[in-house]
Amino acid sequence: xxxxxxxxxxxxxxxxxxxxxxxxxxxxxxxxxxxxxxxxxxxxxxxxxxxxxxxxxxxxxxxxxxxxxxxxxxxxxxxxxxxxxxxxxxxxxxxxxxxxxxxxxxxxxxxxxxxxxxxxxxxxxxxxxxxxxxxxxxxxxxxxxxxxxxxxxxxxxxxxxxxxxxxxxxxxxxxxxxxxxxxxxxxxxxxxxxxxxxxxxxxxxxxxxxxxxxxxxxxxxxxxxxxxxxxxxxxxxxxxxxxxxxxxxxxxxxxxxxxxxxxxxxxxxxxxxxxxxxxxxxxxxxx
Length: 287
What we know:
Layout: E1 3-5, H1 15-24, E2 26-31, H2 43-62, E3 67-72, H3 82-91, E4 101-108, H4 114-129, E5 133-137, H5 144-156, E6 166-168, H6 176-181, E7 185-189, H7 198-208, E8 213-216, H8 228-238, H9 243-258
Parallel strand pairs: 1-2, 2-3, 3-4, 4-5, 5-6, 6-7, 7-8
InterPro entries: Metal_Hydrolase (IPR032466), TatD-like (IPR001130), UCP005295 (IPR012022)
GO molecular function, one term: hydrolase activity, acting on ester bonds
Keywords: Hydrolase, Metal-binding
């Protein structure tokens, strides 16, 4: 089955991972801007990073037949530096017309601080001004519930936000309901040691259905598995779910959400899935 990983950080993956993804059926990925494993010190460092996301990484992906899209921001881990964050936000419009940029993300909260909230709101202003879709990061572990509630409140307080163009990622059992109930898209991030396992994600699909729901691997610097989405596909098949539901979750839904971005020009693979059951007559032996 072809699938799309809507949130994976391929700058942190080796080239072999692209080959593995392609062999597993991945045809497209979207890569949100995120932490580089250390705090960057200048706007020029982010400008080079955005060039990597818009110029270098798409070419690396295309070598294996994978279409790579990206999102731009300064992430919540670095948002405590308000001055640098504002310089980065002011620079982002330089890249918004690039053909693989889908919007602003992943923005949100990390430790639920005042500075993080300030920069989150200023990212929202940028997205509104330039008519961009939004991808949200929600905090980890003990900060997740409070941070998710704070994020949803800030989003819902602004009537200019089109909720159908917002993807709230890293949802878990205690946050997915609030995200979907308020009209946003929800993303389940499948990690080996945190966030959500394929088994837990399958449980959530069974409870909430597949509407406005996606699954991703994140595949970042920490313990992660870039083929986690196929793991979920296999788990849903093991439980007897039909292929149309699985395809909606891992292929149709990302296309529906991403298609709201002007730069999304996804080209499906031209694959003939029909099976020829006719039997050829045996050829005559040469005389």
